[in-house]
Amino acid sequence: MIRETAALSVRHNAAESYLRVLHALILRDMRTRFGGSHLGYAVVVLWPVVHIFMLVGIYVFRKVPAPIGDSRALFFASGAVPCLIFQYVSREVMKAVMMNRPLTYYPQVKVFDVVFARIIVEIVTGFLGLLVVFSMLVALGIDPRPADATMAIGGYLAAIALGVGVGTINVGIVAFFPAWLMGYQLFSILMYVLSGVMFLPHYLPPELYAAFKWNPALQVIEWVRLGYYPSLGVKVDYAYVMLFALFSLTFGLLLERFVVRQRT
Protein backbone atom coordinates (compact mmCIF):
# COMPACT_ATOMS: atom_id res chain seq x y z
CA MET A 1 0.00 0.00 0.00
CA ILE A 2 2.82 2.37 0.89
CA ARG A 3 4.63 1.57 -2.35
CA GLU A 4 1.47 2.20 -4.38
CA THR A 5 0.93 5.54 -2.65
CA ALA A 6 4.54 6.54 -3.27
CA ALA A 7 4.32 5.53 -6.94
CA LEU A 8 1.08 7.51 -7.33
CA SER A 9 2.70 10.54 -5.72
CA VAL A 10 5.69 10.31 -8.06
CA ARG A 11 3.43 10.13 -11.13
CA HIS A 12 1.39 13.07 -9.84
CA ASN A 13 4.54 15.17 -9.30
CA ALA A 14 5.86 14.22 -12.75
CA ALA A 15 2.58 15.21 -14.41
CA GLU A 16 2.49 18.48 -12.47
CA SER A 17 6.07 19.28 -13.46
CA TYR A 18 5.34 18.53 -17.11
CA LEU A 19 2.29 20.81 -17.09
CA ARG A 20 4.38 23.59 -15.59
CA VAL A 21 7.01 23.17 -18.30
CA LEU A 22 4.32 23.16 -21.00
CA HIS A 23 2.68 26.27 -19.51
CA ALA A 24 6.03 28.08 -19.43
CA LEU A 25 6.74 27.13 -23.05
CA ILE A 26 3.33 28.40 -24.18
CA LEU A 27 3.79 31.74 -22.38
CA ARG A 28 7.32 32.14 -23.74
CA ASP A 29 6.17 31.29 -27.24
CA MET A 30 3.44 33.91 -27.15
CA ARG A 31 5.65 36.60 -25.63
CA THR A 32 8.58 36.13 -27.99
CA ARG A 33 6.50 35.81 -31.17
CA PHE A 34 3.96 38.55 -30.45
CA GLY A 35 6.21 41.10 -28.80
CA GLY A 36 4.79 40.50 -25.34
CA SER A 37 1.74 42.64 -26.11
CA HIS A 38 -1.94 42.07 -26.77
CA LEU A 39 -1.61 44.15 -29.96
CA GLY A 40 1.00 41.78 -31.38
CA TYR A 41 -1.20 38.76 -30.72
CA ALA A 42 -4.21 40.59 -32.19
CA VAL A 43 -2.27 41.20 -35.42
CA VAL A 44 -1.56 37.49 -35.77
CA VAL A 45 -5.21 36.60 -35.17
CA LEU A 46 -6.50 39.28 -37.54
CA TRP A 47 -4.05 38.63 -40.38
CA PRO A 48 -5.94 35.68 -41.90
CA VAL A 49 -9.19 37.59 -41.33
CA VAL A 50 -7.85 40.51 -43.39
CA HIS A 51 -6.73 38.01 -46.02
CA ILE A 52 -10.22 36.56 -46.34
CA PHE A 53 -12.04 39.87 -46.55
CA MET A 54 -9.53 41.32 -49.02
CA LEU A 55 -10.31 38.34 -51.23
CA VAL A 56 -14.02 38.97 -50.81
CA GLY A 57 -13.56 42.68 -51.54
CA ILE A 58 -11.73 41.95 -54.80
CA TYR A 59 -14.51 39.69 -56.04
CA VAL A 60 -17.21 42.14 -54.94
CA PHE A 61 -15.42 44.98 -56.75
CA ARG A 62 -15.20 42.85 -59.90
CA LYS A 63 -18.86 41.83 -59.41
CA VAL A 64 -17.98 38.14 -59.66
CA PRO A 65 -20.87 36.04 -58.30
CA ALA A 66 -20.29 33.20 -55.87
CA PRO A 67 -20.23 29.80 -57.64
CA ILE A 68 -22.87 28.57 -55.19
CA GLY A 69 -25.20 30.33 -52.78
CA ASP A 70 -26.04 34.01 -52.56
CA SER A 71 -23.15 35.24 -50.43
CA ARG A 72 -19.66 35.76 -51.81
CA ALA A 73 -18.29 36.30 -48.30
CA LEU A 74 -19.71 33.04 -46.98
CA PHE A 75 -18.48 31.05 -49.98
CA PHE A 76 -14.91 32.31 -49.80
CA ALA A 77 -14.77 32.15 -45.99
CA SER A 78 -15.95 28.52 -46.02
CA GLY A 79 -12.99 27.68 -48.26
CA ALA A 80 -10.29 30.04 -47.01
CA VAL A 81 -10.71 29.45 -43.27
CA PRO A 82 -10.04 25.67 -43.24
CA CYS A 83 -7.25 26.05 -45.78
CA LEU A 84 -5.55 28.80 -43.75
CA ILE A 85 -5.99 26.86 -40.50
CA PHE A 86 -4.19 23.90 -42.08
CA GLN A 87 -1.43 26.04 -43.57
CA TYR A 88 -0.81 28.20 -40.50
CA VAL A 89 -0.65 25.22 -38.13
CA SER A 90 1.64 23.20 -40.40
CA ARG A 91 3.95 26.19 -40.98
CA GLU A 92 4.18 27.50 -37.43
CA VAL A 93 4.72 24.04 -35.94
CA MET A 94 7.66 23.68 -38.32
CA LYS A 95 9.19 26.92 -37.01
CA ALA A 96 8.79 25.95 -33.34
CA VAL A 97 12.05 24.02 -32.96
CA MET A 98 14.06 26.54 -35.00
CA MET A 99 12.91 29.45 -32.82
CA ASN A 100 13.21 27.64 -29.49
CA ARG A 101 16.26 25.44 -30.05
CA PRO A 102 18.22 26.86 -27.03
CA LEU A 103 15.43 25.68 -24.71
CA THR A 104 16.09 22.06 -25.66
CA TYR A 105 19.48 22.29 -23.95
CA TYR A 106 17.67 22.17 -20.62
CA PRO A 107 17.05 18.58 -19.45
CA GLN A 108 13.44 19.36 -18.52
CA VAL A 109 12.56 20.48 -22.06
CA LYS A 110 12.26 18.00 -24.91
CA VAL A 111 11.83 18.76 -28.59
CA PHE A 112 8.35 17.26 -28.47
CA ASP A 113 7.40 19.66 -25.64
CA VAL A 114 8.33 22.66 -27.79
CA VAL A 115 6.32 21.31 -30.73
CA PHE A 116 3.33 20.45 -28.53
CA ALA A 117 3.30 23.94 -26.98
CA ARG A 118 3.31 25.52 -30.45
CA ILE A 119 0.44 23.25 -31.55
CA ILE A 120 -1.68 24.44 -28.61
CA VAL A 121 -0.93 28.10 -29.38
CA GLU A 122 -1.83 27.68 -33.05
CA ILE A 123 -5.09 25.85 -32.29
CA VAL A 124 -6.18 28.63 -29.92
CA THR A 125 -5.12 31.30 -32.43
CA GLY A 126 -7.04 29.60 -35.24
CA PHE A 127 -10.14 29.29 -33.07
CA LEU A 128 -10.01 33.00 -32.21
CA GLY A 129 -9.58 33.86 -35.88
CA LEU A 130 -12.63 31.77 -36.72
CA LEU A 131 -14.65 33.64 -34.09
CA VAL A 132 -13.55 36.99 -35.55
CA VAL A 133 -14.58 35.88 -39.07
CA PHE A 134 -17.98 34.79 -37.77
CA SER A 135 -18.40 38.10 -35.92
CA MET A 136 -17.56 40.14 -39.01
CA LEU A 137 -19.97 38.13 -41.14
CA VAL A 138 -22.71 38.81 -38.59
CA ALA A 139 -21.80 42.52 -38.64
CA LEU A 140 -22.23 42.46 -42.44
CA GLY A 141 -25.69 40.96 -42.05
CA ILE A 142 -24.62 37.46 -43.14
CA ASP A 143 -25.68 34.42 -41.17
CA PRO A 144 -22.47 32.36 -40.67
CA ARG A 145 -24.22 29.35 -39.14
CA PRO A 146 -23.77 26.21 -41.26
CA ALA A 147 -26.77 24.18 -42.37
CA ASP A 148 -25.08 21.10 -40.91
CA ALA A 149 -22.99 22.21 -37.93
CA THR A 150 -21.62 18.72 -37.25
CA MET A 151 -20.29 18.45 -40.80
CA ALA A 152 -18.66 21.90 -40.72
CA ILE A 153 -17.08 21.40 -37.29
CA GLY A 154 -15.74 18.01 -38.39
CA GLY A 155 -14.10 19.70 -41.37
CA TYR A 156 -12.48 22.36 -39.20
CA LEU A 157 -11.14 19.69 -36.81
CA ALA A 158 -9.82 17.71 -39.78
CA ALA A 159 -7.99 20.85 -40.97
CA ILE A 160 -6.31 21.12 -37.55
CA ALA A 161 -5.39 17.41 -37.54
CA LEU A 162 -3.95 17.69 -41.03
CA GLY A 163 -1.95 20.78 -40.06
CA VAL A 164 -0.54 19.05 -36.98
CA GLY A 165 0.44 15.97 -38.99
CA VAL A 166 2.11 17.84 -41.84
CA GLY A 167 3.68 20.26 -39.36
CA THR A 168 5.46 17.45 -37.50
CA ILE A 169 6.86 16.15 -40.80
CA ASN A 170 8.06 19.67 -41.58
CA VAL A 171 9.88 19.74 -38.22
CA GLY A 172 11.89 16.70 -39.30
CA ILE A 173 12.58 18.02 -42.80
CA VAL A 174 13.70 21.48 -41.72
CA ALA A 175 16.05 19.94 -39.12
CA PHE A 176 18.45 18.83 -41.87
CA PHE A 177 17.23 21.08 -44.71
CA PRO A 178 16.58 24.62 -43.33
CA ALA A 179 15.76 25.97 -46.80
CA TRP A 180 12.51 23.99 -46.62
CA LEU A 181 11.13 26.83 -44.48
CA MET A 182 10.99 29.03 -47.57
CA GLY A 183 10.23 26.12 -49.89
CA TYR A 184 7.15 25.16 -47.88
CA GLN A 185 5.83 28.71 -48.02
CA LEU A 186 6.05 28.63 -51.81
CA PHE A 187 4.47 25.17 -51.82
CA SER A 188 1.64 26.51 -49.60
CA ILE A 189 0.83 29.21 -52.16
CA LEU A 190 0.52 26.59 -54.89
CA MET A 191 -1.62 24.38 -52.66
CA TYR A 192 -3.84 27.34 -51.77
CA VAL A 193 -4.48 28.08 -55.44
CA LEU A 194 -5.21 24.44 -56.29
CA SER A 195 -7.31 23.53 -53.24
CA GLY A 196 -10.57 25.09 -54.37
CA VAL A 197 -10.70 28.17 -52.15
CA MET A 198 -11.80 30.40 -55.03
CA PHE A 199 -13.61 27.87 -57.21
CA LEU A 200 -15.49 24.57 -57.10
CA PRO A 201 -13.09 21.80 -58.16
CA HIS A 202 -15.83 19.34 -59.08
CA TYR A 203 -16.72 21.61 -62.03
CA LEU A 204 -13.38 20.66 -63.58
CA PRO A 205 -13.09 17.76 -66.07
CA PRO A 206 -13.50 14.43 -64.23
CA GLU A 207 -9.93 13.28 -64.90
CA LEU A 208 -8.46 16.53 -63.56
CA TYR A 209 -10.80 16.55 -60.58
CA ALA A 210 -9.82 12.97 -59.71
CA ALA A 211 -6.16 14.03 -59.66
CA PHE A 212 -6.94 17.08 -57.50
CA LYS A 213 -8.75 14.88 -54.97
CA TRP A 214 -5.42 13.43 -53.87
CA ASN A 215 -4.82 16.81 -52.21
CA PRO A 216 -6.17 16.36 -48.65
CA ALA A 217 -6.55 20.15 -48.22
CA LEU A 218 -9.05 20.16 -51.11
CA GLN A 219 -11.08 17.44 -49.43
CA VAL A 220 -11.03 19.32 -46.12
CA ILE A 221 -12.43 22.40 -47.86
CA GLU A 222 -15.15 20.32 -49.49
CA TRP A 223 -15.84 18.77 -46.08
CA VAL A 224 -16.47 22.20 -44.54
CA ARG A 225 -18.47 23.42 -47.53
CA LEU A 226 -20.77 20.43 -47.30
CA GLY A 227 -21.74 21.80 -43.91
CA TYR A 228 -22.81 25.06 -45.55
CA TYR A 229 -24.07 23.72 -48.86
CA PRO A 230 -25.52 20.20 -48.35
CA SER A 231 -26.55 20.11 -52.01
CA LEU A 232 -23.00 20.75 -53.20
CA GLY A 233 -22.89 17.35 -54.88
CA VAL A 234 -19.43 16.17 -53.84
CA LYS A 235 -18.19 13.14 -51.92
CA VAL A 236 -15.45 13.50 -49.36
CA ASP A 237 -13.19 10.56 -48.62
CA TYR A 238 -13.20 11.05 -44.85
CA ALA A 239 -11.07 7.94 -44.24
CA TYR A 240 -8.40 9.20 -46.64
CA VAL A 241 -8.18 12.61 -44.94
CA MET A 242 -7.94 11.21 -41.42
CA LEU A 243 -5.53 8.43 -42.40
CA PHE A 244 -3.35 11.01 -44.18
CA ALA A 245 -3.30 13.14 -41.02
CA LEU A 246 -2.59 10.10 -38.81
CA PHE A 247 0.16 8.78 -41.08
CA SER A 248 1.72 12.26 -41.29
CA LEU A 249 1.70 12.59 -37.50
CA THR A 250 3.21 9.12 -37.04
CA PHE A 251 5.92 9.71 -39.63
CA GLY A 252 6.61 13.16 -38.19
CA LEU A 253 7.01 11.76 -34.66
CA LEU A 254 9.42 9.14 -35.99
CA LEU A 255 11.45 11.91 -37.64
CA GLU A 256 11.40 13.84 -34.37
CA ARG A 257 12.63 10.78 -32.50
CA PHE A 258 15.39 9.67 -34.85
CA VAL A 259 16.36 12.85 -36.74
CA VAL A 260 15.51 16.03 -34.85
CA ARG A 261 16.76 14.84 -31.44
CA GLN A 262 20.07 13.83 -32.99
CA ARG A 263 20.59 17.35 -34.35
CA THR A 264 19.61 19.32 -31.23
Indicate the proportion of strand residues: under 5%
The average pLDDT value, as a whole number, equals 82
Report Rg.
20 Å
Number of strands: 0
Mass-distribution shape? globular
Tally of discrete structural domains: 1
Order of helices and strands: HHHHHHHHH
Roughly how much helix do the residues carry, as a percent range?
A: over 70%
Runs in which pLDDT lies below 50 for 5 or more consecutive residues are: none
The helix-and-strand class reads mainly alpha
**Tally of separate helices:** 9
**Spatial gap, N to C terminus:** 42 Å
Biggest β-sheet, characterized? none
How is this structure best described in words?
This protein is mainly alpha-helical and 264 residues long. It has one domain (2-263). Helix content is 77%, strand content 0%. The protein is built from nine helices and no strands. The protein has helices at 2-33, 38-61, 72-99, 111-139, 149-176, 180-194, 206-212, 216-228, 238-263. Helix 2 (38-61) packs across helix 4, helix 3 packs antiparallel against helix 4 and helix 5 (149-176) runs antiparallel to helix 8 (216-228). The longest helix is centred in the first third of the chain and has 32 residues, at 2-33. It is globular and about 55 Å long. The N and C termini lie far apart (42 Å). The mean pLDDT is 82.
